[in-house]
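#struct-pred
JK: can someone run the complex with magnesium ion? inputs below
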Amino acid sequence: MSIPLTDAPVPPLVRRLARGAQVRPIWENKLGGMTFRTDDERFIKVGPVHLETSMADEAERMSWAAPFIRVPTVVEQGDDGDTEWLVTRSITGLSAVHPQWVAQPETAVRAIGEGLRALHERLPVASCPFDWTVPSRISNAAERGVIVPEGLRAAPPIDVLVVCHGDACAPNTLVSEDGRWSGHVDMGQLGLGDRWGDIAVAAMSTGWNYGPGWGGLLLEAYGVEPDEERLAYYRDLWNAT
Ligand SMILES: Nc1ncnc2c1ncn2[C@@H]1O[C@H](COP(=O)(O)OP(=O)(O)O)[C@@H](O)[C@H]1O
Ligand SMILES: [Mg+2]
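RT: done, structure tokens with the ligand placed:
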């Protein structure tokens, strides 16, 4: 989905947000967004304003989740109408798709599964103001002109309602030196939903990042038996939206 970067030019906006610190590009996403790391322990994410989620949404969700689970602290956030930005404090760990972890897929996949389980257990459903249930995902897609196929409009009954990460792809779990998950990033879509919405995406993304055959370990590390119907449904919904 996204690629680690080594040498890309640093836009003037990022220089400004760096406030004199050195910056290094580390990541580019498929929506034209880029993430930079500063030498004073901040991450600067910039990208075009778009309809799917906003960095204002992300900052709000990170701040909400922060008391319960390790997520970056928001330093500043804004936009100029065309470009939006989010500056956060670094948290420990490397992305689970850093070359170091791609070389150790078993450790990385376990960390992702255990990290997702912890996120689902710790974030409080009762006080979560954000929605990522199927109806809201379908209407968000419609606002972007994406029509979800008829066959995906009715979701299977909710298994366990949790606060979902909303983009539980492998790169969004950070893994520390000891091989355990150390935090989560990229929370623009965090919200209430069936846990399988996240589990299906996490399992699918192991295929993109580590190759075939890791989905079973992901489920084992999360601590759940495969539910083929919900896995297929939420995989298809993800791909359709
Ligand atoms: N505060 C942070 N601390 C540590 N790593 C971070 C932080 N913010 C971003 N990252 C790293 O930058 C990458 C890209 O950030 P992310 O918010 O996931 O951007 P995108 O929306 O483009 O996927 C993450 O996968 C993670 O490795
Ligand atoms: Mg990401």
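RT: quick notes.
Residues 171-172, 186 surround magnesium ion (ligand 2) (CB under 6 Å).
Residues 94-240 form a domain with the Aminoglycoside 3'-phosphotransferase; Chain: A, domain 2 fold (CATH 3.90.1200.10).
JK: thanks, will look after standup
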